[in-house]
């Protein structure tokens, strides 16, 4: 929306981060080339600029990394918890010290706004390491019996939407409980994990405790299938999650899966409307909607539908889309051309099935991968866009008349990761929250994260919990 | 420039009785304090630089109600204030004038003379400012006195005691009476003293109450209590004027007062205006700062933008 008050560009400096022209795999404390010499390029989604060339892990590299982790496990797991805590605290502090550098790096590699990497991702990353550092010497008191044992080598595969945060969610509890790690970051966002490898060295972490293998799905598959991996943790798409579950079935490996979602954000007629609008925006436009727990289905009580949609459209018109490094940018770039194509196809499907599409007047940059914030009204449960996870800035608006109908519609999904309730009535919050089949239910807020709070799904959103005391269980023999 | 209609006809029936008014005010959407404050804080992180900053600083200067409300006010002090309002920066005549000078009713005539010909308005705090604890007749006499002396704007305080006791119609009637006393000659700013109203729900109700009664401006506070204007309560009032216009077509101004001291703060408030009520309010007819010490910081920042160097407090006037 044009305004008399035009904010001048306020780009964060790129000079705080020094990206090398090439990176290796991080195995046994050293950066190394892939065994077969393969490399791939990582690009900045907002400009399509090539940022660096990264070694691409293959089966032989996975084997090497798992062997290194196995070797390191003996000593690492034998350390007193208080000693492991020291390393984790050190890592957490280094992350805080280098947070500006990491925020810029993450924005360059992922395309999300610097506002989010700076104010959401990095503080949470550090908080996760601090939190699990605190648990490392208190495992006897975590409720899993006396002296719970680590599992061994954890094979971890993480997605591209929160590269460093997902790494923290995986690595912090694994190390705190005495496991060693082989982690494969997503092929479109390997850089922050490689910087993390450097942080491990800076913290003096013993060799082999953390190994980072940038690569594609084949490396992830090899890692999951490796016979010497004791624990598999995966965050990503439901399709890949099912594949992993099949691979792991029948082995003694422990498995946790954090998969897709189609979160319902339920707004009752007595909701604090202005804050609900903010919550809807946070729910679906945070990180361009590329969030597994996004509130991608808005369920609004019919009596306030018009009022709420007017407010929401007005609010969307104030969102600023553009250069993710600009501190005033609210909506950054879509992570990859592939993801953009998927979002585009699903939005077109929504239109074809008769839903009404709306976007604010919004100029998209010439290069890079961009998708304007989009609303679909007249959506019903039968529409594809109400069922399939779009993983983009696309909100489907449905209506309901009674709380029972809201609950029925909210639960009518193959997923069950998150939900939101907006009402001023406390008793209704408790009553509705109890009936929602979702791992996280937010009331009068959305997309709030904290390391102390367990996170995970129902149904096709996966199983197991990350974060909180519950998050320790996935890495302990209990 | 759009003008304010005297009453909001579309909602006139809600003021038929105390109970209809109460039902209406309590039927307004609630305010979630955590969410409101988070939104205000997130708008506070907008990075305003270079040309946008220069624009914002000049705009903020033009929105200042330069105020002296001391028992010790003298004609000399008021004249000095008027001179500063007309020429805020003696070293740079391109600096915009402030919106108004704000004085006690007995100083209106002096102020009027001091700003004559400059375009600066004279505002006066009538209605037994700042406590508002006087009979209605006394308050109205206070207002008539100030208007007769030439005040362009009247800043009235509401009866917080009546509001907190739930006597909404009494508060409404008082505002209507004061508005009548202002007549066509003065615009009416209604001060809620948000710090004393205590809850955000109350602030939203007071905002609607004031607007229903014909306020031309709604204003946070007197500047005389501990909690004055905050980004959150100003954001809330901006939402109220935005919604009120959507419903009635009547535009009402907003004035945060007290506690806004730095340019950085002022720019944050302008961001709130820009992204909440919208550009229609980015004008001193619709938005004001009740903040006197703010002006010197704005002027120092302005000098810094012009020269590239920070000056110091001796390069702006102390009036």
Query: Percent helix among the residues of chain B?
Result: 40-55%
Overall average pLDDT of chain A:
97
Q: What percentage of amino acids of chain A are in beta strands?
A: 15-25%
Sequence of secondary-structure elements of chain B: HHHEHEHEHEHHEHHEHEHH
The total of helices of chain B stands at 13
- Could you give a short account of the major beta sheet of chain A? 7 strands, mixed
Beta-strand content bin of chain B: 5-15%
Runs of chain B with pLDDT <50, length 5+? 1-8
Q: What's the alpha carbon Rg of chain A, rounded to whole Å?
A: 22 Å
Your description of this structure?
The complex is a heterodimer of chains A (478) and B (319). Chain A has 478 residues and is α/β, with parallel strands linked by helices. Chain A is built from 15 helices and 20 strands. In chain A, helix 3 packs across helix 4. Chain A is globular, with a radius of gyration of 22 Å. The termini of chain A are far apart. The relative contact order of chain A is 0.14. The model of chain A has no long low-confidence stretch (mean pLDDT 97). Chain B is an alpha/beta fold and 319 residues long. Chain B is built from 13 helices and seven strands. The longest helix of chain B has 18 residues, at 231-248. The chains are: A alpha/beta (478), B alpha/beta (319).
Salient structural properties:
heterodimer, A: 478 residues, alpha/beta, seven-stranded mixed beta sheet, six-stranded mixed beta sheet, 20 strands, 39% helix, globular, B: 319 residues, seven-stranded parallel beta sheet, 7 strands, 47% helix
Layout of helices and strands, plus pairs?
The complex is a heterodimer of chains A (478) and B (319).
Chain A: E1 22-23, E2 25-27, E3 30-32, E4 39-43, E5 50-55, H1 59-78, H2 81-97, H3 99-110, H4 114-135, E6 149-150, E7 153-157, H5 163-176, E8 180-184, H6 191-202, E9 210-212, H7 217-225, E10 231-235, H8 238-248, E11 254-258, E12 264-267, H9 273-285, E13 297-301, H10 305-316, H11 337-352, E14 356-358, E15 374-377, H12 384-387, E16 394-400, H13 403-411, E17 418-422, H14 426-435, E18 440-443, E19 462-463, H15 470-473, E20 476-477
Chain B: H1 18-26, H2 33-43, H3 50-62, E1 65-67, H4 75-86, E2 100-103, H5 108-114, E3 121-125, H6 136-148, E4 153-157, H7 160-164, H8 168-182, E5 187-191, H9 194-197, H10 200-212, E6 217-219, H11 231-248, E7 253-255, H12 263-276, H13 293-307
Parallel strand pairs in B: 1-2, 2-3, 3-4, 4-5, 5-6, 6-7
Helix pairs in contact in B: 2-11, 3-12, 3-13, 4-5, 6-8, 10-11, 11-12
